[in-house]
Amino acid sequence: MIDIIPAIDIIDGKCVRLSQGDYNSKKIYNENPVEVAKEFEAHGVRRLHVVDLDGAASHHIINYRVLDQLASRTSLIIDFGGGIKSDEDLVIAFDNGAQMVTLGSIAVKNPELTIKWMDMYGQEKIILGADVKDRKIAINGWKEESGIELDDFLQKYIEKGMTKVLCTDISKDGMMEGPSIDLYKDIMKVHPDMYLIASGGVSSIDDLYKLEEANISAVVFGKAIYEGKIKLSDLYSFF
User: Fold this and answer.
1) Is 193 a catalytic residue?
2) Rounded to whole angstroms, how far apart are CA atoms 34 and 74?
């Protein structure tokens, strides 16, 4: 059974969504992310993916108070990403209730530090963020392309013991045109034991079934819920 992980993206403490990572496309869905999280929880959701978009475009975590509120006012298992660039940021994330962290830009720019953190905190607490554009890794809130090939990026970390990967196809993100199932299938062919979290493009409940049929471990999505394309009651069959 595929793990269902709704997303809450945060700018200025508010629940928002972007399209293809474009900050100018910001749409506010709720002024209070805790309300959104509580509604998810009330419908049987157990996991939550939280992204500090202010942090992702900056050099440190910014919306940690929102993380603390989400963690203290719900029992959701939260993985948190965006702005984790230092030991201090990582401590802030865990101290404010994150049970896992997603590391993207720092994993590209400082692999030694990323691997140190994985050894220190354990592979269960670290998710490798692979944000992809044309099968190359993008960083810093998707504003920069690193030139690193996805396959090379994944292989390097898997050899070091990384087991969880969140792969977002930037071209699909927020567009609700369907996920990059072929991309995820290609990854799973090479790394069949990976806990792969698909992200980007989910537009309907059928997309979730297609990802499940492709043996993808988990899926992160948000806009389809916020735009009413997927009702929370539709998710009951996955719990």
Assistant:
1) no
2) 8
